[in-house]
């Protein structure tokens, strides 16, 4: 009796607020059984629930119909789609979501990669009340017209993620150009292969003047995007507070190997017989010299990016090395200038290097003083060239997250120990 009195005594709006915190449809169904007033409150509560949509179009429709009966006022839906979904399933799912007129946040995560058609985009654009749209493991077909998405005037959060290593998240510039017209966006996540994307498409994102959070991840060699365009985009987005860049190799100065004369080198114990002949003067010597100078500069409190590049003299590749050194230094200065200006405003600044063989030392030396502003670093295939690796990582004093997915040592160098104790004074580090 006392419990029934309390449930009736609670104002309807208070009950709705309480039920709004429920994230599981079963919990909502249980709350509806408490009393008639709670049943009425649940029907109008702006809940955001998580569900798993079963395989099979008929089963999926039944699950959505049950949700509609339980929560006709559903405001947020985070749905994981079981394996086995195909184009017909995706189309039927988006059609079934049209019944939820109060839907403001939608997240769909597909177990199997899905390609959205033009009709699918129209269905998404019909959900006019959306403020957040997150689609995981989807791709935008080349023939799909994304322009209907511009009708989502209240859209502030957009996330398009594609995990496939075979198919692309998007092809060409047309989709990027449409996304650049979603002027109300405050958060944008684009993760996946952007094949044949060019500077023109990337710079179209400059129209997102209200953007405060940007996460871009691409494979550099599968697009035609250049470093100047990437830096220009970052400079144009003046409201950014959070920046995560995957494929960050694009920001580094270009380092083409040029033909130079081979010089003998000592062969570490256990190395292959031809190991010594692989040493070359020129670029490798420049990089090792720069790394050593940068480590010394870090230890002595000198700006590492101010260390001059040395060009080998008297070698067949001397002129080419000098030309590379000048161009690389100009690229490096521009990159550091833009990132330093941007980094002072960022609360979150993460870089991810995806390419096999991206050297830890090369990346950190190129970044210069920008290292101290980074909050996250990740290498998919990290190449370590010496003990200086850890010392340069230790210079990233603001680092909260460090991930080396797969790391290996340069076989041209003498083996060394990776001493993690050198990172012990990184007081902000939370993930290693």
Explain how this protein is built.
By secondary structure, the chain is an alpha/beta fold. The chain is built from 14 helices and 16 strands. It has helices spanning 2-9, 12-19, 25-32, 36-44, 57-70, 87-96, 118-125, 174-179, 199-203, 227-236, 283-300, 318-343, 360-367, 388-394; strands spanning 48-53, 76-81, 105-116, 132-140, 157-161, 170-171, 187-191, 194-195, 213-217, 242-246, 348-353, 358-359, 376-379, 382-384, 401-404, 407-409. Helix 5 (57-70) runs parallel beside helix 6 and helix 10 (227-236) packs parallel to helix 12. The protein is globular.
- Range of helix content: 25-40%
Give the tally of β-strands: 16
Shape: globular
Number of helices in the DSSP assignment: 14
List unreliable stretches of 5+ residues. Answer: 255-289, 302-314
Report the span from N to C terminus. 54 Å
**Largest sheet entry:** 11 strands, parallel
Strand proportion, as a percent range, falls in: 15-25%
SSE order:
HHHHEHEHEHEEEHEEHEHEHHEEHEEHEE
Widest sheet: strand order? 1-2-3-4-5-7-9-10-11-13-15
* C-alpha Rg (nearest Å): 27 Å
Q: Which secondary-structure class do the elements indicate? A: alpha/beta
* Overall pLDDT level: 79
């Amino acid at each position: 009796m006392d419990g029934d009195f309390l449930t009736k005594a609670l104002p309807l709006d208070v009950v709705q607020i309480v039920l709004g915190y429920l994230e599981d449809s079963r919990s909502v169904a249980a709350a509806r059984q408490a009393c008639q007033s709670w049943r009425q409150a649940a029907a109008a509560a702006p809940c955001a629930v998580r569900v798993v949509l079963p395989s099979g179009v008929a089963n999926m429709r039944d699950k959505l119909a049950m949700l509609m009966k339980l929560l006709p006022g559903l405001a947020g839906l985070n749905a994981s789609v079981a394996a086995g979904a195909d184009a017909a399933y995706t189309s039927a799912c988006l059609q079934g979501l049209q019944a939820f007129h109060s839907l403001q946040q939608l997240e769909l995560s597909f177990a199997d990669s899905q390609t959205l058609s033009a009709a699918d985009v129209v269905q998404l654009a019909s959900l006019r009340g959306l403020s957040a749209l997150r689609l995981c493991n989807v791709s935008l077909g080349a023939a799909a017209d994304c322009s209907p998405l511009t009708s989502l005037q209240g859209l502030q959060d957009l996330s398009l993620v594609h995990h496939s290593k075979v198919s692309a998240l998007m092809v060409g510039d047309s989709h990027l150009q449409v996304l650049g017209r979603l002027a109300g966006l405050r958060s944008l996540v684009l993760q996946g292969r952007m094949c044949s994307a060019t500077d023109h498409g990337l710079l179209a994102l400059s129209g997102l003047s209200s953007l405060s959070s940007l996460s871009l991840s691409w494979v550099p060699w599968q697009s035609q995007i250049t470093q100047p365009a990437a830096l220009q985009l970052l400079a144009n987005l003046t409201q950014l507070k959070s920046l995560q860049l995957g494929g960050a190799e694009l920001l580094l100065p270009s380092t083409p190997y040029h033909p130079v004369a081979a010089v003998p080198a000592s062969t570490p114990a256990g190395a292959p017989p031809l190991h010594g002949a692989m040493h070359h003067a020129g670029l490798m010597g420049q990089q090792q010299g720069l790394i050593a100078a940068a480590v010394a500069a870090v230890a002595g409190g000198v700006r590492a990016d101010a260390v001059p590049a040395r060009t080998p003299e008297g070698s067949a590749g001397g002129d080419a090395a000098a030309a590379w050194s000048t161009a690389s230094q100009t690229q490096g200065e521009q990159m550091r200038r833009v990132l330093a200006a941007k980094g002072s405003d960022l609360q979150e600044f993460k870089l991810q290097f995806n390419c096999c063989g991206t050297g830890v030392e090369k990346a950190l030396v190129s970044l210069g003083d920008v290292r101290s502003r980074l909050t996250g670093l990740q290498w998919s295939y990290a190449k370590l060239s010496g003990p200086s690796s850890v010392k340069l990582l230790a210079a990233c004093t603001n680092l909260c997250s460090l991930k080396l997915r797969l790391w290996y040592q340069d076989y041209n160098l003498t083996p060394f120990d990776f001493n993690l104790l050198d990172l012990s004074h990184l007081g902000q580090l939370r993930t290693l």
